[in-house]
TrEMBL record:
Compartment(s): Endoplasmic reticulum membrane; Membrane
Protein name per its UniProtKB record: Histocompatibility (minor) 13
Residue ranges the record marks as coiled coil: none
Pfam families: Peptidase_A22B
Family, per entry: Belongs to the peptidase A22B family.
Gene name of this polypeptide: hm13
GO cellular component: cytoplasmic side of endoplasmic reticulum membrane; lumenal side of endoplasmic reticulum membrane
Organism in which the protein naturally occurs: Cyclopterus lumpus (Lumpsucker)
InterPro entries: Peptidase_A22B_SPP, Preselin/SPP
């Protein structure tokens, strides 16, 4: 996380602070161009809006993750992250980040970003459609003629026939796809920051909803690994900076610091990477499912971790402005989001039970626990 409004362009620290973005896990900078000095009101509005936008997908994604974990529909089943996945993720992310760095060094930035735009257009339309689907179900009355459709693509014939694509949808889903496509075309043609944010919010909400940690141990491994990863690539090399400046995709939330002066045409943005939302968000969602499993009609751990996230993000912004240097957000978010709930669990005497929580939010048996630890 960084801000470069008040630092000269010739300062190498300012150059590093200008675009500390991780194109993979999204640990990204808050930044703006050095030529523009934001007003205190504009800065407060930009950062306040980013914090609010970060909280929305975590809150609603966590709520939807509870229903998702209980779903019996195969298409709605979440992707469960095991301890092995968590341990490998920082290594895979580092390799991919460095690979992107090499790509941007060797090949034309224009053509790479063209391919990325098309790729994220498809992902964004599907993500936004999935996000809007529950809302459409509430808006339209039950009397609405909701026809069912099926997109089926097979290969072979008779006994050797094999399904390649089997996608079922209805009229409401089709309307959501149309809305998503309109936003996608808007993003492709204009790269407008509002279209970027719509896709970014959809990506973040879907990530929190559909990516489930199998237990708290796995969450600690994942957050700890990305904590080291984030600090290393921000302070140790210029790889992340180079990728940040070259990578154009809706993997961030942005808000203009010059909105008050220039309106919707503003161009000096503060930015927050989706990884700083999704990574802590899936841990917070797991704690909500743990709250539900306790059946105490309380959301103690969820609200504790949620407030811890606000504290960690606020601390990141404060340190960034105090030292005028890029700050990896996970450096502050990880200790806060893990430490606060652990302290509460120690006080309530539920620490052991917390660390035995499975992906669906229910305590696991000792034998199952050993399976998870060996996975």
């Amino acid at each position: 996380m960084a801000d470069t409004d008040q630092v000269p362009v010739s300062d190498p620290e300012a150059a590093a602070a200008a675009a500390v973005l991780d194109a993979l896990n999204g640990t990204e900078a808050l930044n703006a161009t050095a030529k523009f000095v934001a007003s205190p009101e504009g800065t407060a509005l930009a950062y306040g809006s980013l914090v609010l936008m970060a909280l929305l997908p975590i809150f609603f994604g966590a709520l939807r993750s509870v229903h998702c974990s209980k779903s019996k529909n195969a298409s709605d089943m979440p992707e469960t992250i095991t301890s092995r996945d968590a341990a490998r993720f920082p290594i895979i992310a580092s390799c991919t980040l460095f690979g992107l760095y090499l790509f941007f060094k060797v090949f034309s930035q224009e053509y790479i970003n063209m391919l990325l735009s098309v790729y994220f257009f498809g992902l964004g339309v599907l993500a936004l459609s999935h996000t809007l689907s529950p809302l459409m179900s509430r808006i339209f009355p039950e009397s609405f003629p909701n026809k069912q459709y099926q997109l089926l693509f097979t290969q072979g014939s008779d006994d050797t026939k094999e399904e390649i694509v089997n996608y079922e949808f209805d009229t409401k889903n089709l309307l959501c796809l149309v809305i998503g496509a309109v936003v996608g075309v808007w993003y492709l043609l204009k790269k407008h920051w509002i279209a970027n944010n719509l896709f970014g919010l959809a990506f973040a909400l879907n990530g929190v909803e559909l990516l489930h940690l199998n237990n708290v141990n796995t969450g600690c491994i994942l957050l700890g690994g990305l904590f080291v990863y984030d600090v290393f690539w921000v302070f140790g090399t210029n790889v992340m900076v180079t990728v940040a400046r070259s990578f154009e995709a809706p993997i961030k939330l942005v808000f203009p610091q010059d909105l008050l002066e220039r309106g919707l045409g503003a161009s000096n943005f503060a930015m927050l990477g989706l990884g700083d939302i999704v990574i802590p968000g899936i841990f917070i969602a797991l704690l909500l499912r743990f709250d539900v499993s306790l059946k105490k009609n309380s959301r103690t751990y969820f609200y504790t971790s949620f407030l811890a996230y606000i504290f960690g993000l606020g601390l990141t912004i404060f340190v960034m402005h105090t030292f005028k240097h890029a700050q990896p957000a996970l450096l502050y978010l990880v200790p806060a989001c893990v430490g606060f709930p652990v302290v509460v669990a120690l006080i309530k005497g539920e620490l052991t039970e917390m660390f035995r929580t499975t992906a669906k939010g229910f305590p696991q048996e000792p034998r199952t626990k050993r399976i998870y630890q060996n996975s």
